[in-house]
Structures
1.
Amino acid sequence: MQEESSETDTTARAVVCSENAEGSIKDMWTGDFGLTRWIILRHDGTGVLLGGRQFILDISMDFKWQVLDSGFDQPFHLGPTIPRTPILLAEFRLQLDFDATTPGAVKLDGKDTITERRTGPFKQRDPGPRVFAVRLERGYFTPKESSSGLSPCHYELRLVFEPSPYGTKQEWDGIDDYMETDGYWDDKAFVARQCPSPPAGILPHIQDNCVVS
């Protein structure tokens, strides 16, 4: 995914999917200004969902995905200017089949790590295929979480799932104090394509909203 905006016609598939066949971490959609919550969708129909908190990894699951309607491949226009007010680029439905039963190590950038796979709420149970309504939006966004402790930067694109790909609160066993106040089931939005902060002042707002007759 590119960081600079350009004027072009594209599709949600081209924007959302990782350019790297291995699903590099640089192509992730992040829900955290840090490295604790992110999702990758690869062009080959596979992906990875990760969820953690500082040094605790709760979720690292592979999944297969498929498109359920035409919205994913419907062309739309990306202008050179990021809108100050978020706009909808595409809506579509995805089916995700999570692998919560295969043992093994977590892979990152195609390489095994020393961390064993974590299956979040599913506890070695097959969750079966799950259907999500997804929105792709453009604007100035910041992640919901900031595990790095730094002030979050802005991102140009946002991917919103309904419901959360992390499952519902009822599906999680052993909820601790952290999850009671900041549970994964509330994490539905992921951002990508880092961008500068929105311009300040009234002039950019007028320029964005002026109508030429």
2.
Amino acid sequence: MASANISEKFLCSICLDVFTEPVSTPCGHNYCRACISSCWSSRDIIQCPLCKETFLTAPKLRVNTAFRDMLEISKKTKQAGEDGGSPARPGDVPCDLCQGNRKRKAVKSCLVCSASYCDAHLEPHRTVQKLKWHQLINPVDSLEERVCRKHNKVMESFCKRDQCCVCSVCLKEDHVGHDAVSLEEEFKARKTMLQRAKTSMANAISDKCNTVIKVENLMMESRQKVEETKVEANQAFNGLVAAILSKKAKLMEVLEEKQEAAEQKDEALKRQLWLEIAELRQTSVKMEEVLKTEDEFRLLQNLPSIPSATNTRHCYTERKSLLQVEKVLRAVVKIEETLNEHMDKIIREVLQGDTEDEAFEEQQTPFDDELEMASANISEEFLCSICLDVFTEPVSTPCGHNYCRACISRCWSSGAIIQCPLCQETFLTAPKLRVNTEFRDMLEIFQRRTNKQVTEIPKMF
């Protein structure tokens, strides 16, 4: 993909061939001098073929020296790149200037050119004086993502306030005064944070596995106690007269109902715990893959959302014997005239569920606290200073401040002076409002995470 993008930059969009005497229009697009001159002379309207910007008269065509030099270098190194160097294999970064299917493995990537070069095509960067100052790094793909779309400069810093990668010009304009560090420093900090999260998640998995074992043991003990109680009750009732047979049947029915309800509850808890364990293990594997990367930019751009390792609260019940066995045994030996009274009392106790609950609650980890504090600080940046609510269709003013499109438009239309509500910068006419794509994308991510947190209601068993 990178190779295709580089090749297209050296093709004239009119003749669809490599540039011949390239010139630039005032709008910044490049054409062959003969192609653009012929195009304008054959039409009544003089406009750029790409962006359709219209000019009253044919503008003066200028030579973009940097682009011309790059084109000459590409032509000179095309033949040199036909031999030498090892071919690119699956997983390698290919050279962007090698043509056809014989692409060789790149040895360096240039952050200024946004291209990767094999050893032969890298030669101009070693010999041409204008190219020696270009910043070369080990070969990586997706170089375009590392360049600031607003200022066309390499993003070498990370703004902690806005949680995004920025270039040197961004630090002087949109992010002036913000706390910023190098990508390498933030990369190390985030990797340490991910390691702590992975450790916390491993502990959570272990705790949940232990809880499953306790639940299984509880179910086995409960089932055994119920079976023992049923045997003892049967032995006692078999020696009684026909007058107490109805009470015996009632007691058996209650025991079966209570046991069935308890087992259904325990089985549901087991299923939920296994689902959570599977999700945590899957997230742990993804974190392991992210931790293996040494590309600080890739890690920061593709940093996965870190879920709470203990996002549910479970409890289960250790039940006492459903019957007060000794009371049953004492009751059956009493005389017939008092038996009905005692049996009614025992059945009432069983129906009331004479149990004690022991709740096993999972505690929130320190890492969860860090995430919640960070989320609280970031959320303030997504509030419009006019409506004091989360941005709706955020736009930026020329002074760099963000507002809802409807809010700032209504503010300017209702006042005689057009100025920024925050910094009070005044404009002669209402300026064109532009969309800050990076801020918009961050807002969408924040809204998705906020909605997810609202729906994740802790469950109690």
